[in-house]
Amino acid sequence: IASRPPQIIANVRNGHTGILSIVTLAMNVIGSLLRVFTTFQNPKGLDMGALAGYLLSFILNATMAIQCFIYRENTKKVLAKKNK
Predict the structure, then answer these.
(1) In this structure, how many other beta carbons lie within 10 angstroms of the beta carbon of residue 49?
(2) Rounded CA Rg of the chain
(3) C-alpha distances in angstroms, 55 versus 5, 31, 33, 75?
């Protein structure tokens, strides 16, 4: 969780996401969403501490995934320039 906010800020400042993998981010989003779901399904009751952490993780991962779509054209340009 701690590594996500600096990366999100760097993406905004740079205007692109660099070499972030949308596949990995999608798996992180799905995984954290599933953790939220399974926390609600806990037969021992709802653990608010765990739920807060999983929700935060989901929000941060989803934010980075959304950035990949928002900045995809700029990212393509930047990566094409670096490959020349």
Answers:
(1) 8
(2) 16
(3) 14, 11, 8, 28
Tokens of 64: 């980075």
How many residues are listed for the chain in this entry?
A: 84
What is the three-state SS of the chain? Answer: CCCHHHHHHHHHHHCCCCCCCHHHHHHHHHHHHHHHHHHHCCCCCCCHHHHHHHHHHHHHHHHHHHHHHHCHHHHHHHHHHHHC
Whether residue 75 contacts residue 16, with contact meaning beta carbons closer than 8 Å, is answered with: yes
The predicted-structure confidence for 28-83, as pLDDT tens digits, reads as follows 999 999 999 999 998 888 899 999 999 999 999 999 999 999 999 999 999 999 88
